[in-house]
Every structure is written in C-alpha cells, then in structure tokens.
Amino acid sequence: MSGNNHISSPVRTKEIIQRYGFSFKKSLGQNFLIDQNILDKIVDAAGLDQAAGALEIGPGIGALTERLAMSAGVVTAVEIDRRLIPILRDVLASYPHVKIRNDDVLKVNLQELFAEDFAAVERVSVVANLPYYVTTPILMKLLEEKLPLDNIVVMIQKEVAERMAASPGGKEYGSLSIAVQYYSEPELVCIVPRTVFIPQPNVESAVIRLKVRERPPVEVADEKHFFEVVQASFTQRRKTIANNLKARFFPEEGRERLESLLAEAGIEPSRRGETLSLEEYARLSAVLLAAGIV
Ligand code: SAM
User: Fold this and answer.
1) Is 90 part of any known ligand binding site?
2) Is the entire prediction scored with pTM above 0.90?
3) 80 near 58, Cβ under 8 Å?
4) Ligand 1 atom nearest residue 60's Cα
5) Between the CA of residue 266 and those of 64, 137, 162, what are the distances in Å?
6) At which positions is S-adenosyl-L-methionine bound (predicted)?
7) Which of 78, 149, 163, 236 would suit a FRET pair with 269, their CA atoms being 20 to 30 Å apart?
8) Top mutation candidate among 31, 83, 135 for ligand 1, by most atoms within 8 Å of CB
9) Is residue 31 lining ligand 1, measured as CB closer than 6 Å?
10) What are the sequence ranges of the domains in the chain?
C-alpha cells in the first residue's frame, strides 16, 4: 500500500466517512486517529511480530486495525457499533488474518474469545485507541480476568494515564494506580495532541503501555480484601489512613485496636492513603485479615 493511502490519512478517512454516510456517535467515544506516526508509535510499543496476536477494542473505521494487520500474525477487533461492521469488512477485505467481531467488549467472554482466536499465536497484546467513557472498566476487566496477555498498549485520557503510572506520595496516586500496578508495570509512551483525531476530543490523550505481570509484585492472600482495604483508605483523601479505616472497619470501636494493628503493619496512623506503597497495603491487608477484620 502506498505511503499516504492508509485508512488513517485524513483524505482517506474523510472519503470513507462520506462514502458510507457514517456519522460520529459521541456517546460511543468515537474519535478516529488520522496520524500514521502516532499509529506507528502505538504499534511499536506493543512489540508485535508474526508470532503475536493483537486484540483491538473499538476499531472504528480501521485505521489502527490496518496498521496492526501489517505487524501481527492474527488480529481480532471488537466493535460495538453495528454501523461500522460492513465498513470494516470492506476496507479491511485484503487482510484475511483480521477478524471483526460486533460486540460490547464489556460483555464479551474474553476467555472464550482468546481460545477461539488466539490458539495459533505465542502471545497476545491488546492494542487500542480506547473509547474514553469506559477506559477504566475495560482495562480493569482485561487485568482482573488474568488473560494470557503480554502487554496492553492503549491511547487513553492523559490524566487517567498519569494516575495509572503514578508513584506513592503524589496527588495522582490512588486506588486506580494500585490496581493497575498490582497487575502490570505501566509506562507512559507519549502524550498525544487533540489534532490527531477526527473529531477532536475535549481532553488531551496519552499512550500508555502496561506490561502484564506474570504474578503480582506483592503476596496477597485475599485479593478482594486487599482491594477493599485500598478503597477504604482513599474514601476521603484528606483524612488519615486511621480515620478512613476506622469508618470502614471499626465504626463502633475506640481507636486502640486499630492503632495497634497499624503498628503491627508498620504504618503510622497519621499517614494518608496516598503515601502507602503496594507492599504496605499488602501488609496492612494481611494484618487485618489475621485479626479477622474483613
Ligand atoms: N480505533 C479507531 C481509531 O483509532 O481511529 C477508533 C477509536 S474510537 C476512540 C473508539 C471506538 O470504540 C469507536 O469505534 C467506538 O464505537 C468503539 N466502542 C465504544 N464502546 C465500545 C465497547 N463497549 N465495546 C467495543 N467497542 C466500543
């Protein structure tokens, strides 16, 4: 294919939109990429080759799908908007290793999808320009289901990317940072201006790469409990960890028991949730569990 005839070229994108009479649905987060350099950066960050599969969420009119088709052995793209399916089948007709599925990624059985579509490849990456209104639920579903994923490279809202990659101590660090870092190692790939999309979104974007961990970096006996402790610690960000935990786990008791458990976990009661590392949350959850505080 010639250099400037990619689906992502502004002329071709506009031509496809016109030819099929497509109208953008804001409610589905439809902002299509029109910059081949950004597509190259996204796909390069995933480290694909012919032994790799790529799962794309929300292919739109296929700009990224086409780029993925050139790099990966197998590509599956899950698109919720029925109107886009005939367009995708048409514009991607010359790539037999691309499969288009009309589905809501939040409802699809991903274990089954992986077994059906990716049996022949050695590893799988998720690569997507995500619809921003459902970024977090989509990423949490991918991570929590413990799919056999190598990495996840996604375009998301810049602020959300910064929160995912944040270290303890800063104002971006919160329960999202902890959840994402429990399952993966996040790395900001690049910041992306609004001008590379049609239509332009209201927010700045960033590409983030989540290298999926084979096992969590800390030992956690009960993940549900661990994440409840994390959530409780951030209920009111301005409050100390002791006050937040008291409200959730010790509403009727004095502070003595809570303070001695915090001491056992090596955590000062006056600290705030945003200063605790993953290790400290794991320790705290273990101490509370051992004391029967669930
Ligand atoms: N990949 C294309 C690109 O980069 O040009 C389009 C990206 S656009 C930001 C997001 C796409 O996700 C849209 O095509 C939208 O219809 C689709 N989408 C929105 N919600 C979805 C969901 N729950 N499941 C699957 N696709 C979804």
Assistant:
1) no
2) yes
3) yes
4) 14
5) 48, 33, 28
6) 31, 33, 58, 79, 104, 129
7) 163
8) 31
9) yes
10) 3-212, 223-290
